[in-house]
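Here is one chain, start to finish.
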Amino acid sequence: MVWPPVFSPMIEAYLDRPRTEALLAQIDAIFFEASGTKSFPSAAARDAFRERWLGRYLKHDPQHALLALQSPGTASEVVAGYLVGAIDDPARAPRFHDLGYFQNLQHLTARYPAQLHVNLAPGWRSVGIGRKLLEEFCANASALGAPGVHVFTGRGLRNVHFYARAGFEEVGSVTWNARELVMLGRRLTA
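Its structure:
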């Protein structure tokens, strides 16, 4: 890949693209590369990890998923990044009950119900693509009536600065699995 990228990727809805094996393989490669978990005791553990942080969104909320594509619709199409998310309050949605921190901060998830996960391939980071994905998701969530959006991340991780530049601020914190997580929120309505 030429650095910096010559052309800016196009942001497209996940549902507008044919879900080919090649497309899903690129999304998975970005997901696992960006993850802090690099090894798994078994294939089943790896599959469960993918389902928890990516798969459930593609299965239950594909209408909110976005892709950043370089050369879309061509043989050289490349997924530069993706965003998956949900609009409904995760503290009230049964599909998220395995993540106890939502229940612990349900007074905040009610104010910031939309949630997202954004990941980029290494060569496409720090060039504005993550921000484009985030802004598209926020515009869509606002149009659907979500009053706010949130993300959870570890305290002190580098992505906290990315979200702060995008208008997110710390609204809460919780200890989960012996780690301190911060809830970063952004209001979408006044």
